[in-house]
Design brief:
It contains 21 helices and two strands. It is mainly α. It has one domain. It has a two-stranded antiparallel sheet with strand order 1-2. Helix 2 crosses helix 15, helix 7 runs antiparallel to helix 20 and helix 18 runs antiparallel to helix 20.
């Protein structure tokens, strides 16, 4: 009887299960998200060229803010800060293209300054999300997500080749390990079930790491020097405010906040068999904005709900907030252990690339799925095609904005996502709906027929 009651509690949002029952359920959430959580920090560290000690702090901060963001969502502060839904938050891949462009042009303090303002923008979106969603139907959101996926491919391929700064960049050895890692990810994703399937990225990186270790591609020099406990002081990286970076980040936060509506809807529908309430939706977006503001102070990157953890909730029906809260605490504790973070820095670039290229491909295909929720009429294909063409085209055609002011080059010439977003939103607003075009065509045909009869 007690066993039945305990099991029932983990399938209830507010139940309090026994610790021995909650722990394995929490650990599987940690296993599913840990790699994705730290990967953006590793990539950004590589772009900005920070030293190993700073890289470790970036990874620690990514874990720290993921734990804080998750706890904010699970246990809301007041009425409008947090959704109360069973979600796990982590560093978002969607921001990587913008972070790479800002990191290569500016520095970490500038990124965190822009993130602070972006977090405030997310709070504003949460307050007025119903009005803003009209600007971002699935056609527009899908176009932006599709562009994000395409923008990430060069990063993944460069990592598969060993990382552009590596002396053996493009060597067969790097590609061998990268392809082996990718093959392992695909195997666990499509030929296994349960937690092995949901943790396919982790399994691929772990086994790929062992292959690289056997080939002498792993160095533990920095692990020995790392401590066992360290608290990252606020504003360790500092903070600068640069207008063009802020504008780009605000645009990205608006898009990400609207996209979060779909994530919260999936979680509530799959785990709780209902639609999220307006309060949950508003609180979820605001909570993510607040987490980003905190992250800007402690060095944590922008967060988002993790789809693999949504999958676990839907598969297991375990929606208990204490279970996911325990997972958040584990992640939080890991953020205070430099030794753990330093171990993650030993992952070779080729392993990281082999594991993440499939994630970036999934992001791209998610965009296509969103786009195809609406009919691919001539109007809609123009919105998608032109937005992607201008977004990707301007970035690939290096120097095409060379004579523009610096502020314009930063906003429009550094991130394909910004251009694609502005173009898609603008075209979706000004191009006439297909029904109007069809009606005009029918009238034209009718006049033509009357003329022939005359």
């Amino acid at each position: 009887m007690n066993k039945t009651k305990a099991y029932a509690e983990v399938t209830e949002l507010n139940g309090i299960p026994r610790f021995i029952q909650a722990l394995p359920l929490a650990v599987q959430h940690v296993v599913a998200m840990i790699v994705g959580c730290v990967t953006p920090a590793i990539i950004l560290a590589g772009v900005t060229g920070v030293d190993p000690a700073q890289q470790i702090i970036l990874i620690q901060s990514a874990l720290l803010i993921s734990g804080i963001a998750t706890l904010l969502q699970l246990f809301p502060l007041g009425r409008f800060c947090g959704s109360g839904l069973p979600v796990i938050m982590g560093a978002s891949f969607a921001y990587i293209p913008l972070l790479i462009s800002l990191g290569s042009r500016f520095d970490l303090p500038t990124i965190f300054g822009a993130q602070l303002v972006g977090g405030l923008a997310a709070v504003a979106v949460g307050l007025f999300y119903k009005k803003l969603t009209r600007l971002f139907p699935p056609l527009v959101t899908g176009t932006v997500v599709f562009t994000i996926g395409l923008s990430l491919y060069p990063t993944a391929v460069n990592y598969m080749a060993g990382g552009v700064e590596a002396e053996d960049f493009g060597s067969p050895r790097n590609w061998l390990v990268a392809v082996a890692t990718l093959a392992i990810v695909l195997f666990f994703n499509y030929f296994t079930k349960g937690i092995c399937k949901l943790a396919s990225i982790l399994m691929g990186m772990f086994l790929g790491y062992l292959v690289a270790l056997a080939m002498g591609m792993v160095s533990f020099d920095n692990v020995g020097a790392a401590g066992w406990f360290q608290f990252t002081m606020p504003l360790h990286f500092g903070m600068k405010f640069e207008l063009t970076s802020i504008i780009s980040m605000i645009i990205m936060y608006i898009v990400s906040s609207v996209e979060a509506i779909g994530d919260f809807t999936s979680t509530a529908g799959g785990g709780l068999d209902r639609e999220p309430t307006d309060r949950e939706m508003c609180g979820g977006i605001i909570g993510n904005g607040v987490a980003s503001i905190i992250g800007a102070f402690v060095g944590g990157l922008p967060t988002a709900t993790f789809s693999q953890n949504v999958g676990i909730v839907i598969m297991t029906r375990v929606v208990n907030r204490c279970v996911l809260g325990l997972a958040a605490v584990i992640i939080l504790i890991a953020g205070f252990i430099p030794k753990f973070a330093s171990l993650l820095t030993t992952i070779p670039s080729c392993v990281l690339g082999g594991a993440t290229v499939s994630v970036f491909a999934m992001i791209t295909m998610t965009g296509i799925k969103l786009i195809t929720k609406e009919k691919l009429t001539a109007r809609n294909t123009s919105v998608v095609g032109l937005a992607v063409a201008l977004g990707i085209g301007v970035i690939q055609a290096g120097g095409c904005l060379a004579l523009f002011p610096d502020w314009a080059k930063t906003i429009f010439g550094e991130s394909a996502v910004v251009i694609a977003t502005i173009t898609a939103v603008t075209l979706n607003l000004i191009l006439p709906e297909e029904e109007v075009q069809e009606a005009a065509g029918e009238k034209k045909q009718e006049k033509h027929a009357q003329g022939n009869m005359a």
